[in-house]
Amino acid sequence: IAHRVQGNHVEALRLDSDSLALAERISSAYLIASAKIGLGMTYLSRGNRAAAEANLLEAHTTVGQLGSDIDTYDTLAGLVLVGSRTGRTDEAFARIAALNELIDRGLYSSLGDEWGHAAILETHLAVGQAAEAVTIGTPALEKHERDGYRLTALRLRLLLGQAHAAQGDNEVARCYWEAALTYA
User: Fold this and answer.
1) Which residues 6+ apart lie within 8 Å of 158 measured at CB?
2) Is this prediction's pTM over 0.90?
3) Cα-based distances in Å from 96 to 10, 46, 78, 100, 177
4) How far apart are alpha carbons 30 and 169 in whole angstroms?
5) Cβ–Cβ contacts within 10 Å for residue 25, how many?
6) CA-to-CA distance for 136 and 118, rounded, in angstroms?
7) Residue range 82-97, pLDDT digits in tens
């Protein structure tokens, strides 16, 4: 995760691949799914949406069979991002409904790389729903700041800045972006 967040995708892919090989060697379905989530998110960070989707779909099926809600949360967040970033926003919104059910139950990522709310905001922005992104993103930012999820707060500040800019409120957008610099 640290390598992915820092943009060192080659090393992140190497470590994710090593994790997958080890998980397959010991035949642990849970660890295989976890490694595929990592691979999926790293591929998504690199812009390889097809590889990201393949890994996330496989992981989603497995964690669903295992009954792991937290890992289901991570796969849904990743798949929402894939849908949003590939223009398949109907699919993304369908997955947002399931993701929101988990969020409403108080679930968040166990990976330390929280994407749920950011994925939801990205999808609303992708279809021109900036006001909805602000409505959802503002309380989400407050919660993540309160809970200490600084990386998520950074992402949400960037997206809220985009949402306000899309609404023509450049001063508020600038405030969000300047605050994001302190997190970056």
Assistant:
1) 176, 177, 180
2) yes
3) 30, 23, 11, 6, 25
4) 45
5) 9
6) 10
7) 999 999 999 999 999 9
